[in-house]
Amino acid sequence: MRAEDSDVRMRLLVAAKRLFARQGYDGTSVRQICEEAGANVALVSYYFGGKENMFQALFDTFFPKALIMEFVDRQVDPINGVKELVREVMRFHTTEPELVVLLNQEIALNSPRIDIIRRNAFPIWIKLRELLRQGREDGVFHFRSLDHTMMTVLGNVLFHKQRNYFLPILIGDSNDQEAAIEDSVDFVMRGLQANTDIISQ
Prior knowledge:
Tetracycline Repressor, domain 2, 2 domains, elongated, AcrR family transcriptional regulator
């Protein structure tokens, strides 16, 4: 692909990501994407074959699939594995906030594009489930229900940035993103009653 083509294609994807997050996928037209990108309306069909394929292209471009698969394939003990997973998912929220907003919208709506999200995101959640299961089996995590525990960890990791609704009652003492991540790691470890004497940190 020529550099000029690559630049136009990226501008279209960045515009789509921004508008999908702001207006929703269904509330965004191809014309709006092209206006935002400063591109001819015919170029969405030329590069992607239509708006529907842009959704998958957002994952191909901005979702850290290579990092996910490296982590999924790597052998790691349950404590350090869960800690790393929590940290990296929360950092992804910071680096790709618009994509995260879009994903949350699509999940909440159970949209027709939910299978695309599952194909891309489920490997990391399956790894989380396996780390939790292995940790309980090894005696380093202590909890009753694997399903309930997994959903609680996911809630902490996925929705910690959904602050707007609660802004009137927040006191504004959480501006340090890395500190917030470490607070979440500590919270998850305490919730799992992690026995760090068995596996060193």
